[in-house]
Amino acid sequence: MVTIDKTISWKNLEKHQHETATVTLAEMFESDPSRSTKYTISACGLHLDFSKNFLYDKTLNLLFELAKAAHLPDQISALFAGKRVNISENKPALHTALRDSTKSELLVDGVDIKPLIEGSLTRIEIFSEKIRKGVILGPTGKKIKTIINIGIGGSEIGPKMVNCALRSHKNNSPNIKFLSNVDIDSLLGELDLVDIESTVFIVSSKSFETIETMEIAKFIQKWGKNEFSRVGIDQNKLPHCFYAITSNTKRASQLNIPTKNIFEIWDWVGGRYSVWSSMGLSIALSLGYKKFRDFLEGAYVMDKHFISEDWRKNIPIIMSLITVWNRNFKKFSSQAILPYSDMLSFLPAYLQQLTMESNGKSVNRAGHQINYETAPIMWGDRGTNFQHAFSQHLHQSSTITPCDFIIAANPNKLNDTELEDDARKIHNTMLANCFAQSKALMEGRNLNSTKSQSDKKMFAPNQLKHIITQHVFPGNRPSNTIIMDKITPRTLGSLIALYEHKTFCEGIIWNINSFDQWGVEFGKSLAKDIANNLSKSSSATDPSLLTDSLTENVKKLIE
Ligand code: F6P
Fold it and tell me: Of 16, 89, 246, 460, which one is least surrounded by beta carbons within 10 A?
C-alpha cells in the first residue's frame, strides 16, 4: 500500500511549498487585499478567519486532493455510520451519535443504540432535576449543595472545561468540584471543606480501573464512613452518597455503589470524546438539563455542517488541512491554543488530550512505522494572560508556532451591570489585544520601521547599534482566529465538535487510529511495580528495579 507521503498529492504539495516558501504573509495580503474576506468562513455561530496562513486557493486545492487520496470522505461516512474505525480495539467511535436526537436507527452489534442514548439522557434529566430541585437530599435531609466528580483524563477535563466555560450560564446550581490526582495534600484540603450532609460524590471512570480514580474513591469512602460516625449518621446511608459513571457496572457495584446510582457509558465512545454522554452529568447538574441539551445541539449542528458543507466553507476540514500543511510541509512542530476568555481557561488542556492522545502516534493503522510528522505539540493558555508569559517566544523565538486565537464578539454578562459602557470597553480591550497579537505575528516590525520608533526617543543615539535589533519582530507567523458570537452552551458544543472533527480528519490523512491510546499504558504498568517497591522496607529486590535509584533514594527521605 502506498503511504500518504508517497502519493502524487503529497509530492505536489512539497513542490508547491518549495515554489511558495519565500512569499511572506504580508506579501500575500499586499497582492490580494480581499484575502481576509476570501478566507473567512462561518458556521454554527463560529467565524473562522484563516487568512493569516501560508496558503492560496492552489494550496487548498492540493490539500483537498491529499484528503481525497486518504479517502477522507469514505472515512467520514464510516465514522458516522458506526463502522469499527477504532481498528486496534475493534470498536466504533460514536460520540456523534450521542448528540443526534433524530430517530434514525444506528446499529452496533445488531442493537439500535439510539433508544439507549435517549434512555440515558432521560436518566440524566430526571437525576439532575431531582438534585437541583431538592428532591434527592443528603443523608440528614439537607439539599445537595456540592457535587464532587472523581475522575481523570476524559473523565474529568471535558466536564471541568465545560463547567468552567459556561459558568455564567449557571443558576441555582450546586457547586461542582473535580478531584483527579493522587495528591493527598490536595485531596485532604478539599475534604476539609466538604459538608458530608449536603455532598454527593460521582466516581467517573469508563474502565473503573484507573488507579488514581479508584484510590481516591476508596479513600473518600473510608473518610465518609468516619464522617458519618463523627456526625452520627447511619452507616447504611453512606452508599447513597456515591454515584458512578462507567461502562464497567460490575466494578462499580463492587465498590458498593447502588445499581440505581450507576450511569452507564458505552464502549463505543472514547474517554476523550465522552463529554456528550453521562460523563457530562455534572454539566446537567450545574447548568440544568435544558442547557446540557443545548450543548449537545451545538455539537449536532457542527456535525451536520461537517458532513454536508462544501469543503471550501467547511470549518473542520479547512482547519485540519491547515494543520497538515503547517506540520508536514511548513514543518512547524507545535500549535498554540489561545482562547481570549477566562471561561475557556481549560480549553488548551482539553484539546491537549483530544489531539495529542488521538494523534500523538508514529505507527499507522496497518501497523507500519510512520516516516512523516504526525500530531504537533498542542499547548496554550488564555489571553491576555499568555501575553505576559510566552508571547515573547511566539513573536521573537527561533521557533514559529501557528496559533489558534479564539474569542467571543460579545460577553455574556454585559446586561448584569449598570456600568455597561465601561464593561463593553473592557471587552473591547480584550478584542483589541487578541487582534493585535495575530496582526503583530503576521506583519512583524522590520529594522526601518523600528528605527522610526527610535525617533520617538525609544533609544539614545549611542544605543542604536546593539539595541535596536532587539526590537525587530520577524513576523510572518501564521494564525487562525475563531470569533464566537458569544460563549453559550450551543456555540461551545459547536466549538468542541469542530476540534473533534479536525482531529479525526488529521488522523485519517496521517493514517492513524485516533481512537486508541496504547501509549498511556506502559507508564501505568511500571508505576504499579515501583509502588510495590516503595512499600517494601528492604532495598530493591526486583532486578528490573535495581536501576531505579529514585525509588531507593526517596525511601531514605520518607519520614
Ligand atoms: O489517559 C488514558 C485514559 O484511558 C484516557 O483515555 C481516559 O480518558 C482516562 O485515561 C480515564 O480513563 P477512565 O475513564 O477509564 O478512568
Answer: 460
